[in-house]
Amino acid sequence: xxxxxxxxxGRVGSHIVKHALHDGHHVTVLVRTPEKIQNFNKNLxxxxxxxxxxxxxxxxxxxxxVVISALNTDGTTTLSVSMPLIIEAMYNAGIQxxxxxxxxxxxxxxxxxxxxRYQSSESRRKSTRxxxxxxxxxxxxxxxxxxxxxxxxxxxxxxxxxxxxRVERDILPEGGIKISVLDTAEFTYNQIKDCNFIRSRVGIxx
Length: 206
Description:
Blueprint: E1 2-6, H1 11-22, E2 26-31, E3 44-48, H2 54-61, E4 66-69, H3 78-93, E5 97-101, H4 129-142, E6 147-153, E7 155-157, E8 166-169, E9 178-180, H5 181-190, E10 200-205
Parallel strand pairs: 1-2, 1-4, 2-3, 4-5, 5-6, 6-10, 7-9
Antiparallel strand pairs: 8-10
């Protein structure tokens, strides 16, 4: 399978790349700084470019079967600006499957329906900026015809993977507080062959 991974130099994205290469997939990454890529593999294609550039996105997406985005907000509008470009390029290339890494803040609130968690007292974060960016991505994907899945981890820990975690469609597993970067990457990667969460958000936590 040919996979495009965006955000490949990030905490989650770098491990998604490792999983895909280990399983023999061909992986293309679009990065601003190729020197940050630590994997050297015959099945890895490194493209220098920017997700905010339409031509770069179009070139990167062409020839792939699945798009995986582990892009983060970087305190900017990167997510909301790049996603329309990604969706358009996928339409033009005839690609249907996209998996993104979001945040637990855009899962449904269970105490303040119909609000999302970041809009309710369930969220412990003082700033909602990142959640608002992820919310725009959710809105764009929901209104597309793509087969999307948004993996929504709660607090991300830098620790060894446990391999056992709970997932729930559209909500955070009850009492979920944290999840490791490695387990989040593993679950996200596994969605390339799992059809259980098509056009859904997935809350993931221990």
